[in-house]
Amino acid sequence: MTESAGTPGEPDDSAAGEERTPEAPPLGEAGRPGGDGASGDEGTPGAAAAPGGETRSGSGSGPGPAPEGPPEGGGRGLDITVRHKRHWLRWTALGASFVVLVAAGVGWWLYKKLDGNIRTDTSAAAELKAYEKERPVSVVHDAENILLIGSDSRAGENRAYGRDDGGSQRSDTTILLHLAANRKSATAMSVPRDLMVDIPACHKADKTATRAQFAQFNWAFEMGGTACTIRTVEKMTGIRIDHHMVIDFNGFKDMVDAVDGVEVCLKKPVDDKDAHLKLDAGRHKLDGEQALGYVRARKSLGNGSDTDRMDRQQQFLGALVNKVQSNGVLLNPTRLYPVLDAATKALTTDPGLDSLKDLYDLVRGMRDVPTDKVQFLTVPRRPYHLNRNRDELVQPDADKLFKQLRDDEPVAVVPADKLKGDDKDKGVADASGPSPTPTYSGNNAATDLCKQ
Description:
- By secondary structure, the chain is an alpha+beta fold.
- Helix content is 34%, strand content 20%.
- A nine-stranded mixed β-sheet has the order 3-14-9-4-5-6-15-19-18, with helices on both faces. It has a two-stranded antiparallel sheet with strand order 1-2. Strands 7-8 form a two-stranded antiparallel ribbon.
- Strand 18, helix 10 and strand 19 (439-444) form a beta-alpha-beta unit.
C-alpha cells in the first residue's frame, strides 16, 4: 500500500476510531499539509485535508472532529476584532465619563455663580435679634410672611432715576407676602409709603439711635434700614416677618427682560420724562426699562395718586407672575437660569434666604399655586385727617385683614371698580352682619391687564 501525505507511520494500540493527533505532515504540491488533499485507504486512520486547507482528523474519508485551537489565519483576526471592540467600549466609557464630569462641573459652576450673586443682610438680622422680646410670635406653623422692599436709592447705577442725595434711600414699594401653610394661596399686601404709622426707636447705620415717632411709613427705611421697616410692620400688624428681600431698580428691570417682557394695555398715551416712559395708547409688551417707568409713574398715569400707582404695581406684578408660570419658565432650566441670574443679582436677603437652595425651595413652594389664588391688595386706608397728602388706616377693617393673614385664613379680593363710593378709597367693601367677612379691593395674577 502506498502512503499518502499525512498518513501516520505506525498506529498505536488505542481503540479504532479514537481521535489522534498526527505528527506534522510533509508539505504537498500546494504548500499545504496533505498536498492535494488525498486521503489514505478507506478504513485507515489518518488525517484528511478539508477544502480550504483546513485539516481535520478522524477515520475514513468523512470529516473528523474540529481541532481544539482556532483555524489557521482566523485566530489573529478574531483577536483583533475583540481588541477593537474592547478598545471602542473603553473609549465610549471614558467619553461618557468626561461628559458627565463636564456637565457636573458646569452645573456646579452655575450654582456657585447664582449663589454668589445674593447679598446677605447680616446687620438687619443682628438688629432684629436685639429686639427679639418685642417681636410677635408665629401663629401658624409652615405659613411664611416675607417682606418685599423696593429701594428707591439713587446711588450707583440707579442715579439715572433721580438725584443722588448721598446714597440715602426710602422704601419706594413695600409688600407683605403671605404664603399659606398649604401653599395653595399667596396674598401680597401693599403698605403705602405715605401711611402714617408708629415707628419704633431704631439704630442707624452709624449705630446712633432714633426716637420712636409717629411718621410716614417710608421714613422707617431711611432712618433705620430694613430692620426698622420690619419692626414697624410687625408693630402695626402683629404679624411675624419670617424673611425679607430688598430689590433695587435695576434688578427689577433685569427680571422683566429675563422673561422677555410683560404685556400691558394703555387707555391713553403717556409721555413721562421723569419715568423715562413714552408710549402710545393700546397694547404694548414692555421691556425692563419701560416696565420700571410704568410702575413708578404717578402724574402721567391714572389720577396721579399713590393709591392708583400701587394698584398699577400690583397688576403688573400679577402679570409678571402669570408670564413666568404660563410660559413654563420654572420647569425649563434654559429659561429659568436668566430669571434666577437677574433675581439673585437684584436681591439682598436675610441669612435664611441667602442661598440659591433657599430661594429655590421658596419658588418651588409657589410653583403650584393657581394664578387666581395669587392675590394683591392694599391695606385699608384713607386720606389722613390732618394732611390729605398722607394716608391713615381704616379701622376696624385693617385689623381684620391683619388677623386673617396672621391666622392663615383666606382673603377675598375684587377689582376696585366693583366697590362703591367711599369703599374705593379705603380699599374695603362694607362689612356688615353678625360675622362680617370684608372683601378687599385688589386683583389676582390671572387678571389680564388688557381686558379690564
